C-alpha cells in the first residue's frame, strides 16, 4: 500500500510532469532528466552544502530562486531550471568566482588548468566556457593564500585558485573521516587550512588524495602527476584495480604515450566509490622504475647473468625435469603469488598438478 | 568476507579484532567511519592503541596472543545472560548445547587474568555484541598469525553462530584479505589442499574431475605447505622450487633459516618484477610484467573477480606470468599449456571452478559479481549463508586457550608484535620505489612506550639492539603511546631492519601459519 502511494509522488519540471521518490532533491531529479543545471560545491558522495548557489532554480510560489542541491522535492512543486533570469544569475556568480582566481601564480592559465591536476580540476573552466566568462569584472579580490611552502611530495596547495567550495574539507571529513583540514575566516578572507595552519604532514592527513580529486579548480593538485604536464601526448585513461591491498579499489591509470603519469580513483568503483588511500593514489611509479630487470637471467659461474628467454626457459624446465627424474616428482615445489593475477596463480598450480601430479603448491598467504 | 564492503556501513555494532584497518585497509575503514557517524557502536580489541582504537566506544587492550581467552569469555557472558539466538542455533547449527556448557568455565574474571583486560570491559563487550541487532566482526592477520590462528577464527565463528549474526545484511564474519589477490590465489587453487574453486584434492569426486581435466593421476592427499617445503629444502629433501612474486627471504620468519633452505636447492626459479633479495638466490630469474602492463583479473576481499588492464607496454623483455608458466609446461612436454592470452586462462578457471562457473572474461569486464556465481544468468552472491550454510550446518568448536609458543622469561622479558604501516607495502619492493613515500616513512622505528624507554635505559631516537633466541637486529627506538607498557612494535617492511630474523617461534599446527604477532625479545641500548 504505502509503496503504491510513494510511486504516486509527482511534480513539474519545466512544464513536464515527473515522478519522484520521497527524499530526492530537486537537483537529483533534474540530473535524471539531463537538465544540465550547473554546480560547483556539489559532489554526489557528500552531503549537499548549498554554498555556491550555481544550482539555483525557480520554484512557483517562492520569490527567490532556491539552491536545488539542498531543496527536497515536494508533491505538486513546479520548478523551472533554465530561465533567462536564472542563466543571468549563474553567469554573474561564475564571473565572481572566476575573478577570485585572477592572481593565480605560475605559467598555467588561471582558469583552464591541466587535467593532470585532479579528477574534477576542469569544472570551473567548463563553467567559465559555458557562461563565456573571462574574469576581469571583479578583479583584485582574491581569497586564500598559497601554501606552496608545504613541500610534501604529493599535494600541491595552490590556494590562489581556491574558490571556497569546501569540497576538500567536506570530503576529508565525510568520506575519509580524517578531519585533517578546515576553514578559517569568511568571505574573501576565507582560507583552507590544517590545524595550527601547518603543513599537511603535521596534521591528521593520510595523503589519500581525495581533496585533490574533488577540487573543481585545481587549487589542490596531484604533484606527482603534474610533473608530466609538458609531455606532448594526450592523456589516456585505462580502468584497472589497485595493486596493493585486498579491498580492490577501482582506479584509472593515466598514461601519456608509453608513460604512466598518474592515478585517479574511479568514481563508480564498486569497492571504493571514488575513494583511495596513499598507496593506491600515489605509489604507482614502481612500474617504470629503472630497477625493473629487462631480461631473463641465469646463474653462470656463481653470477646471475642476462640471457635470452629461450635459454632461461630451457634452464628452468631442465631444473624441474632433473629434480623429477633423479629425486621423484615430490622433490618439486611451487609458490604462487598473492599479488599476481588469478591467471598467474592458476597456471602455477596447473604446472604442479597437471605436470607433476602432486599438490605441492602454496601461496604467500602463510607469511 | 561473508558480507560485501558496502555492508560495512550498515551494522549497529562493529567488533574489530586484530585489524589495523585504517592503515592496512584504509578505504574499507572509511566505510566503518560512515557507520560510526550514522550511530553504530564499535568495540576494538588490539594490543596496540591503534587509530581504530581511538575511534572506538570500547577499547580492549588485550595482551598479544590472548584472543581466544577474550572470545571464550564473551561467549560465556552471552550464554549466561541468555542472549544467544536459540532459533538460529536450533535450525542452523550443530554442537550448540555442548558449546554453551563448554563456555561455563570461562568467566570474564578468568579471561581478565590472561588478557589483562578488566573483566567489566569483557562483560560490556559481550553484552553489546550479544544484544546487537546487526553485529559484524572484522579481523585480519592479528587473529591468524598465531599458533592458535585457527582456534581464534573458530572462536569468532562461535560468537556469530550463537547470536545468529550471519547471513544477513550488516552482519557476518569478515576477514580482510591483506594482499590484492590473496583471495584470488586461493580461489585459483594455489593451495596444497584444494583444486581451483575450493574443491578438495582428497574428495574422490573432485579428484576424478581434475584427473580427467588434466589428463593424469593427481595425488589424493593434500600437499605439504610452504613452511614444510622450506624445511625439507633445508634438510636436502626438496630439490627444485619456483617462487612467483614473493620476496620470501624478507617476508618469512626465521630469515637465516629461509636463506639457507633456498641456497640448498639444486634449482630455484624466481619469477618477479624486481630483482628482490630472494631473486638474488635464484638459478633462473624470469622477469614478469608488472601491474599496469598486464591484462588479467584480481579477486578482492569481498569475493569479486575484477579486471585489470595493461595501460603501457612491458619494461624490457618482461612477460606475463601465465605465458611464462605455459612456456615451461610446453618445454616439459605437458598437455594443456598452449595458452595465448590471459582471457583463455581466465575462461579455463571458470570452466573448472564451480564458484566461478557463471563467470567469463567478458562478464567480469562489465559486471560487478561476487562469487559463488553458479551459472551464466546468476546475479552473484554478495552475502553468504542467507537462510542456510553452503556446507550444511554451522559447527560450534569447543577450544581452549593456549599460551603463545614462547612466553616472557628473564632473558626475553618484552613482547614484540609485528605488522604493517600505511605508507609501506610488504617488503617495499613496490612502495620503496615510489617517489615521495620516504618523506612520510624514511625508516623503520621500534615503537616503545615512553615510560618503558626510561625504565629500560633506552633513548628516544637512538639505536637499540633487539634479540630473540633466533637472532638480533638493530633498530632506532621511538617513544610512542600506541605501544602498551611491555610490548613493542615494528613492521617487517624495511630490509635494513630484518625483524623476521627474530620471529618464527611457532606455527599453527593446522595452517602452518607462523606466529608473527608474538615474539618475546630483549632490548638493549647501544
Ligand atoms: S589527502 Fe586526504 S586526509 Fe589529507 S587533507 Fe586531503 S582528503 Fe584529508
Ligand atoms: S587504494 Fe588503498 S585501500 Fe584501495 S585497494 Fe589500494 S591499497 Fe587498498
Ligand atoms: S551546487 Fe548547489 S549550492 Fe553549490
Quick overview of this protein structure:
Chain A has 367 residues and is α+β, with helices and mostly antiparallel strands.
Can you give a write-up of this model?
The complex is a heterodimer of chains A (367) and B (526). Chain A is an alpha+beta fold and 367 residues long. Chain A folds into four domains: 82 residues, Ubiquitin-like (UB roll) (Roll); 130 residues, 2-Layer Sandwich (Alpha-Beta Plaits); 62 residues, N-terminal domain of TfIIb, CATH 2.20.25.90; 66 residues, no CATH class. Chain A contains nine helices and 16 strands. In chain A, the strands form six sheets. A five-stranded mixed sheet of chain A has the order 2-1-5-3-4, with helices on one face. In chain A, strands 10-11-12 form a three-stranded antiparallel sheet. The longest helix of chain A has 19 residues. The termini of chain A are far apart. In chain B, strands 16-18-17-20-15-19 form a six-stranded mixed sheet. Chain B is 32% helix and 17% strand. Chain B is an alpha/beta fold and 526 residues long. Chain B has four domains: 172 residues, 3-Layer(aba) Sandwich (Dimethylsulfoxide Reductase, domain 2), CATH 3.40.228.10; 131 residues, Rossmann fold; 58 residues, no CATH class; 112 residues, Barwin-like endoglucanases, CATH 2.40.40. The model of chain B has no long low-confidence stretch (mean pLDDT 95). In chain B, a hairpin with a 3-residue loop joins β7 and β8. The longest helix of chain B is centred in the first third of the chain and has 15 residues. Chains A and B meet through β10, β11, α7, β13 and α8 of A and α2, α11, α13, β9 and β11 of B.
Amino acid at each position: 500500500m504505502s509503496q503504491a502511494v510513494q510511486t504516486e509522488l509527482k511534480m513539474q519540471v519545466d512544464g513536464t510532469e515527473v515522478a519522484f521518490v520521497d527524499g530526492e532533491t530537486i537537483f537529483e531529479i533534474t540530473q535524471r532528466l539531463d537538465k544540465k543545471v550547473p554546480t560547483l560545491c556539489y559532489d554526489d558522495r557528500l552531503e549537499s552544502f548549498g554554498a555556491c548557489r550555481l544550482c539555483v532554480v525557480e520554484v512557483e510560489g517562492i520569490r527567490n530562486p532556491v539552491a536545488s542541491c539542498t531543496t527536497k522535492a515536494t508533491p505538486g512543486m513546479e520548478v523551472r531550471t533554465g530561465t533567462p533570469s536564472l542563466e543571468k544569475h549563474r553567469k554573474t556568480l561564475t564571473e565572481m568566482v572566476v575573478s577570485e582566481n585572477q592572481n593565480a601564480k605560475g605559467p598555467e592559465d588561471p582558469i583552464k588548468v591541466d587535467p593532470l591536476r585532479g579528477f574534477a580540476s576542469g569544472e570551473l573552466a567548463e563553467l567559465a566556457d559555458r557562461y563565456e566568462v573571462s574574469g576581469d569584472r571583479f578583479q583584485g579580490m582574491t581569497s586564500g593564500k598559497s601554501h606552496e611552502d608545504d613541500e610534501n611530495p604529493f599535494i600541491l596547495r595552490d590556494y590562489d585558485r581556491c574558490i571556497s567550495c569546501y569540497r576538500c574539507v567536506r570530503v576529508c571529513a565525510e568520506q575519509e573521516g580524517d578531519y585533517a583540514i578546515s576553514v578559517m575566516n569568511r568571505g574573501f578572507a576565507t582560507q583552507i587550512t590544517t590545524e595550527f595552519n601547518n603543513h599537511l604532514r603535521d596534521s591528521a592527513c593520510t595523503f589519500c588524495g581525495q581533496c585533490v580529486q574533488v577540487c573543481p579548480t585545481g587549487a589542490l593538485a596531484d604533484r606527482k602527476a603534474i610533473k608530466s604536464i609538458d609531455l606532448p601526448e594526450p592523456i589516456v585513461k585505462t580502468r584497472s584495480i589497485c595493486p596493493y591491498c585486498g579491498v580492490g579499489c577501482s582506479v584509472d591509470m593515466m598514461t601519456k604515450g608509453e608513460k604512466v603519469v598518474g592515478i585517479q580513483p574511479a568514481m563508480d568503483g564498486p569497492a571504493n566509490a571514488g575513494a583511495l588511500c596513499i598507496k593506491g593514489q600515489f605509489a604507482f611509479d614502481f612500474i617504470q622504475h629503472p630497477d625493473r630487470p629487462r631480461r631473463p637471467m641465469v646463474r653462470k659461474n656463481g653470477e646471475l647473468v642476462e640471457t635470452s628467454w629461450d635459454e632461461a626457459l630451457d634452464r628452468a624446465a631442465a631444473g624441474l625435469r632433473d629434480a623429477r627424474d633423479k629425486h621423484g616428482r615430490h622433490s618439486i615445489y611451487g609458490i604462487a603469488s598473492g599479488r599476481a593475477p588469478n591467471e598467474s596463480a592458476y597456471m602455477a598450480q596447473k604446472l604442479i598438478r597437471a605436470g607433476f601430479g602432486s599438490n605441492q603448491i602454496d601461496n604467500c598467504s602463510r607469511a | 568476507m561473508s558480507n560485501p564492503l558496502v555492508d560495512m556501513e550498515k551494522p549497529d555494532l562493529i567488533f574489530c579484532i586484530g585489524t589495523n584497518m585504517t592503515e592496512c585497509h584504509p578505504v574499507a575503514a572509511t566505510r566503518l567511519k560512515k557507520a560510526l557517524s550514522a550511530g553504530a557502536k564499535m568495540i576494538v580489541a588490539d594490543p596496540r592503541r591503534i587509530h581504530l582504537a581511538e575511534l572506538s566506544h570500547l577499547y580492549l587492550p588485550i595482551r598479544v596472543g590472548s584472543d581466544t581467552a577474550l572470545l571464550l569469555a564473551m561467549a560465556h557472558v552471552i550464554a549466561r545472560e541468555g542472549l544467544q539466538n536459540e532459533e538460529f542455533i536450533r535450525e542452523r547449527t550443530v554442537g550448540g548445547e555442548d558449546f554453551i556448557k563448554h563456555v561455563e568455565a570461562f568467566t570474564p574474571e578468568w579471561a581478565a587474568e590472561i588478557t589483562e583486560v578488566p573483566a567489566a570491559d569483557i562483560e560490556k563487550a559481550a553484552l553489546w555484541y550479544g544484544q546487537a541487532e546487526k553485529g559484524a566482526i572484522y579481523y585480519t592477520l592479528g587473529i591468524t598469525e598465531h599458533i592458535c590462528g585457527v582456534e581464534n577464527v573458530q572462536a569468532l565463528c562461535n560468537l556469530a553462530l550463537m547470536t545468529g549474526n550471519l547471513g544477513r545484511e550488516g552482519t557476518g564474519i569478515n576477514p580482510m584479505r591483506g594482499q590484492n589477490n590473496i583471495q584470488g590465489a586461493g580461489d585459483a587453487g594455489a593451495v596444497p589442499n584444494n583444486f581451483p574453486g575450493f574443491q578438495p584434492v582428497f574428495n574422490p569426486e573432485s579428484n576424478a574431475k581434475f584427473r580427467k581435466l588434466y589428463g593424469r593421476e593427481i595425488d589424493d592427499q593434500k600437499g605439504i605447505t610452504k613452511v614444510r617445503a622450506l624445511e625439507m629444502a633445508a634438510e636436502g629433501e626438496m630439490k627444485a622450487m619456483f617462487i612467483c612474486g614473493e620476496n620470501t627471504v624478507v617476508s618469512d620468519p626465521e630469515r637465516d633459516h629461509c636463506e639457507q633452505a633456498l641456497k640448498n636447492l639444486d634449482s630455484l626459479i624466481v619469477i618477479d618484477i624486481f630483482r628482490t633479495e630472494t631473486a638474488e638466490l635464484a638459478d633462473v630469474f624470469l622477469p614478469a610484467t608488472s601491474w599496469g602492463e598486464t591484462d588479467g583479473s584480481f579477486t578482492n576481499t569481498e569475493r569479486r573477480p575484477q579486471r585489470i588492464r595493461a595501460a603501457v607496454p612491458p619494461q624490457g623483455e618482461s612477460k606475463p606470468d601465465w605465458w611464462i608458466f605455459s612456456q615451461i609446461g610446453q618445454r616439459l612436454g605437458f598437455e594443456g599449456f598452449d595458452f595465448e592470452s590471459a582471457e583463455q586462462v581466465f575462461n579455463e578457471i571458470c570452466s573448472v571452478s564451480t564458484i566461478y562457473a557463471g563467470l567469463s572474461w567478458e562478464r567480469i569486464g562489465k559486471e560487478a559479481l561476487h562469487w559463488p556465481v553458479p551459472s551464466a544468468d546468476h546475479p552473484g552472491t554478495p552475502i553468504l549463508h542467507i537462510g542456510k550454510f553452503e556446507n550444511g550446518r554451522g559447527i560450534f568448536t569447543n577450544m581452549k586457550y593456549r599460551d603463545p609458543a614462547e612466553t616472557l622469561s628473564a632473558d626475553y622479558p618484552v613482547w614484540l608484535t609485528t605488522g604493517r604501516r600505511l605508507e609501506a607495502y610488504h617488503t617495499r619492493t613496490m612502495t620503496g620505489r615510489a617517489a615521495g613515500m620516504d618523506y612520510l616513512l624514511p625508516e623503520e622505528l621500534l615503537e616503545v612506550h615512553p615510560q618503558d624507554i626510561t625504565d629500560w635505559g633506552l633513548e628516544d631516537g637512538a639505536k637499540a639492539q633487539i634479540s630473540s633466541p633466533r637472532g638480533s637486529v638493530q633498530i632506532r627506538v621511538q617513544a610512542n603511546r600506541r605501544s602498551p607498557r611491555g610490548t613493542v612494535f615494528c613492521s617487517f617492511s624495511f630490509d635494513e631492519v630484518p625483524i623476521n630474523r627474530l620471529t618464527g617461534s611457532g606455527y599453527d599446527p593446522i595452517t602452518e601459519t607462523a606466529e608473527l604477532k608474538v615474539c618475546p625479545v630483549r632490548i638493549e641500548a647501544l
